[in-house]
Amino acid sequence: MATTLESLPVELVADVLGELDLASLITVSNLSRRLRAVVSEPSLNPWRRPILRNLLDMSGEYEPALKHLSVRQTIPRHNWVEILTLGKAEYLLFGMTLPNLKESEWEECFRRRFLPGWIKWKKDGTWKEAFLKCAFLLDCDARRRPVRILYRLWHRSHSSCTTDEAWTHYIVLNRNGSANLWDGSSRNYNPLTIFHEIKLQNNLAHLMTHARLVVEFKDVRVIALGVLTKPRSAFSINRNARLLLHPPGITKGEEGLSSSSNSISEGSEESFQPPMEQTASPRNIHGNPKDIYRELTHPLPSRCHARYPFYTPGGEDKRWLGPDELEEGGRQWVGPMLITAQLIGPQTKDTIVDGLPLQDLDLVVGTGRSQYASLSWADLTSIAPWLELTHTITGAGLGH
């Protein structure tokens, strides 16, 4: 007996439709009532796969059919949470028709796309206003007009304008277990210059500054600047600096044996290697790490850090550059560590300096790497809730 479309399970039909591109799926949805019912069913949702293929396309080119997808009633509304979370800012602002969503859906979009500290832009308005209009800000031409937070991000990542955020906040993890929230003028903000001053104050100016990419989101990435060396004693080791990059109990696995572990330590203070028990994590993790940690979803990391805080294969998650308890040839993070948020622009991820990509100077030197956003305590808590800070100080202070 011949198999007909009517005899196939709806789950199988939806699975087949999910392999189509958006334009073909729109055409198929108008061919019969049954097909229209299948594509309209939220629990089946054959739209999700072609939408994600567009949003995660490395070329950044979207299908023309995505532009006016919001006018079609056959598309389950929760697909728009994915689109507004993962879509390019300039495309959402200038290239497509946005849908009408519930207030709870706008809140979900905001929390999945932006850092928690950016909720300050919501003020007393709605979540839609926070995502789209947010506040009245001064543009570069000094004319007062409503500026969407997406436009604010896009504008700052494409220019040197800092009128909407005159002061940039950053966090310093101190060696004694405390942390300070500092700020600097956005117009002259340079984390390398600031960290050099920190090294001078801690007698570390003769050592090289190392930068590591902690986690990357759609519009911003969190970068840590610190000093790697072989310390004279365990007294100078910054344990929270290591915990930020290496959550307790989580390892890279067999791939953790990196070739960089055989590198020679430049500017090392001494060849002394602290005992293993001194470099161990202060928190003992028992059991399966997957039962203790959960993959970060609010905000949602980029594809290169999709499994954060777990290791994400692919070559861009470079938090683990040494085996076991040792960093790169036995070096340790010593002294303070500076954590800052860098806005992602069209040239931010271009490799334009000598050296290894996505680490050290490649993260902070060059075109597209000079725009930064403020980092708050809420942001640090969301990306590293396992840190055990003895004191959190806003501004100057030792935490006594």
DSSP helix count? 15
Give the topology string: H per helix, E per strand: HHHHHHHHEEHEEHEEHHHEHEHE
Number of strands: 9
- Derived from helix and strand composition plus strand pairing, the structural class reads alpha+beta
Specify the overall morphology. Answer: elongated
**Binned strand content:** 5-15%
Rg from Cα: 24 Å
Proportion of residues in helical segments: 25-40%
Low-confidence stretches are: 134-147, 254-282
Mean pLDDT: 81
Distance between the termini: 82 Å
Largest sheet: 7 strands, mixed
Key words describing this protein structure:
seven-stranded mixed beta sheet; two-stranded antiparallel ribbon; 15 helices
Overall description:
β3 and β4 form a beta hairpin. α4 packs parallel to α5. The protein is elongated and about 80 Å long. The relative contact order is 0.13. Mean pLDDT is 81; it is low at 134-147 and 254-282. The chain has 400 residues and is of the alpha+beta class. It has helices spanning 10-17, 22-28, 33-40, 48-55, 79-86, 89-94, 103-113, 127-131, 149-158, 191-201, 239-245, 276-279, 289-292, 361-364, 377-383; strands spanning 135-138, 144-147, 167-173, 179-185, 209-216, 220-229, 332-343, 372-373, 392-394.
Fold blueprint:
Elements: H1 10-17, H2 22-28, H3 33-40, H4 48-55, H5 79-86, H6 89-94, H7 103-113, H8 127-131, E1 135-138, E2 144-147, H9 149-158, E3 167-173, E4 179-185, H10 191-201, E5 209-216, E6 220-229, H11 239-245, H12 276-279, H13 289-292, E7 332-343, H14 361-364, E8 372-373, H15 377-383, E9 392-394
Parallel strand pairs: 4-9
Antiparallel strand pairs: 1-2, 3-4, 3-7, 5-6, 6-7, 7-8
Helix pairs in contact: 4-5, 5-7
